[in-house]
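WARN no homologs supplied; continuing
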Amino acid sequence: MDSKIFSYQVEGIKLEPSTDLLKVSPVFDRKELTEKLKELFKADGFKVDERSFSYKIIDDQLYIQGLAFKEEVAKSIGFMSVK
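OK structure emitted
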């Protein structure tokens, strides 16, 4: 099965100082991000594996890393019965 590993930089989601000891991100919709990722890979025939998602903060910027795999067409086997 063909697979790809990806790292997606989420635009506009950066940690900002809240207090001296705490940084927080703006509110974001995880489902909306998931749908955006699905659309990005759909054109190439790949499907995003949501279970593989890993949320990473690099230089105060949010990244989603994960796995996408090639959608394979299910092969059906037909059986004929004779009466």
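The chain has a mean pLDDT of 90.
OK
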